[in-house]
Amino acid sequence: MFVIMLYVATERTSWIVFGLLMSSVGAVGVASFEPHIQTRVQAWLDPMHEFELSRAGVQDGIVHSEQAMQALWAFGSGGTLGTGWGQGNSDLIGFAANSDFILATFGEEIGLAGVMALLLLYALIVERGVRTALAARDPFGKLLAIGLSGAFALQVFVVAGGVMGLIPLTGMTMPFLAYGGSSVIANWALIGILLRISDTARRPAPAPAANPDAEMTQVVRP
């Protein structure tokens, strides 16, 4: 988000390259030294590996990639139009069906068409946020609107990408779809701020205040 705001403020592409480079280095460093992150990365790269070892009796304990596998199976069983409201097997995903993996439950019951419609709605919210940033007259409003829009888009990408297996899972909630106290409040506050910036941008610009000194120095012609 900060890289996006820096790019908008300076219009320098080097900030994008620098941000991607530092993010990659940080991700590799954390994954190398943190066992919990290593487990998530392994579950992302080969979600069936731990499950096969557990079934073969080679590995005992929790199968960390089980929820990721169940999410992929849920998307697959949903097909194009889904199984119907309340007809999915969300209990297979466990406690995360109403939080991290609510998108998998949604995709199973509504299908690919419903997931695409949901992502389109998210894209429209981001598009309106970018339009608000372009319409804002003050630099602070522009940066705030583009930063909030970028944060919203990043949250959707991280959650959807993690559930669909594009990137490792993070545990974030899907905006306006999953349970969550502070997350729901933060997302509604984000929308409220964007609406306020948009409302201010649509109002007529205030007339410049008269300068009394300029009136006193006017040349009086006979």
From TrEMBL:
The keyword Disulfide bond does not apply. The chain crosses the membrane at residues 12-33, 101-122, 143-170, 176-195. Its main location: membrane. It holds the Pfam family FTSW_RODA_SPOVE. One of its GO terms (cellular component) is cell division site. InterPro entries: FtsW/RodA. This is FtsW/RodA/SpoVE family cell cycle protein. It comes from Streptomyces haneummycinicus.
